[in-house]
Amino acid sequence: MVSQAVLAHQLFTGISRQRPACLVEELAGPWQAVVEGRRHEARGGARKRAAGRGPRHQLVFVDRLVVTLIHLRHDLPHSVLALLFLVDRSTVTRAIGEIRTLLAGRGCAVPDRPNLRLRTLADVFAYAQAEGIELRLDATEIQVRRPLAGRGGRRAFVSGKKKQNTMKATVIADAQGRTFWTDALRPRRMHDATVARNEGIDTCFRHFADVEILLDDGNLGLRRDHPGQAVTPPRKGNKISPPEVLEARLRARHRHSPKRITVEHALADHKRWKQLVRGTHRRETLPTTYRAIASLVSDRNTTTR
């Protein structure tokens, strides 16, 4: 039998040794409520036994949390994790589904405020305006399985850039590369600006007029609609442009790039978790997986200066 202390090590879970205890304290109550709700639905009414009676869980909550963290970090198969913890594979599958959902609902942590977490785009804009933070926004692609032949929407996941079937996630970070928000993943054929608009970024720009977001060339439409708030690098000059214009635009692009690169660093932190290198599981669970990993990565915001 593998030592449980070894499996809970940072090399397996991807988080510091102090974080599992905090996660247990934070998620034990919501998990118990989920389990009790499922049992109430299964028996069709109120419980007939006293609390604490009945069969015990083969996999206690702490082990369920460790199993989920190892699966997200290293993408180990459920059967392998079941062998390590001496339980059935279906038990591991059920545990990962429960804990992953709880992690995804936590939101992203912010510096110096351990009790505050950002869950919506409006929360991010309100926090940025209150603290005077300049945001960065970018999107990344994750390769996923191609839908089976004959099913609708099969071409929606085809990426002309990657030449693969991918899903796209939009991430917002600050000047230090700390993750503040990520959206629900969408098929790759949807444009970056369209994804941001579907999440309500136009409304946030109107309500929070002091917030600025640095963007790349793929969001020129947002800069047109929200000048002064959505900041993109200037376009490259054409062949007939004067040399001084070309030089000025090139210098402006060089000044913009190092400011926006921190959101690329945030995306790199997410891609260190094997679940986001390539989505080999169901596409329906990938949005929940990404939000769960983003919440775990953002926990370092409260400890890293």
Structure, described:
- With 305 residues, the chain is α/β, with parallel strands linked by helices.
- The chain folds into 2 domains: 4-104, no CATH class; 112-302, no CATH class.
- The protein is built from 12 helices and 10 strands.
- The chain has helices at residues 4-7, 10-13, 19-43, 61-74, 78-85, 89-104, 121-131, 192-198, 201-207, 220-225, 243-271, 286-298; strands at residues 108-110, 113-118, 135-144, 158-159, 164-173, 179-182, 186-187, 213-214, 230-231, 278-279.
- The strands form 2 sheets. Strands 3, 4, 5, 6, 7, 8, 9 and 10 form an 8-stranded mixed β-sheet that branches.
- Strand 4 and strand 5 (164-173) form a beta hairpin.
- It is elongated.
- The mean pLDDT is 86.
State the main characteristics:
10 strands, 305 residues, metal ion binding, elongated, alpha/beta, Transposase, two-stranded antiparallel sheet
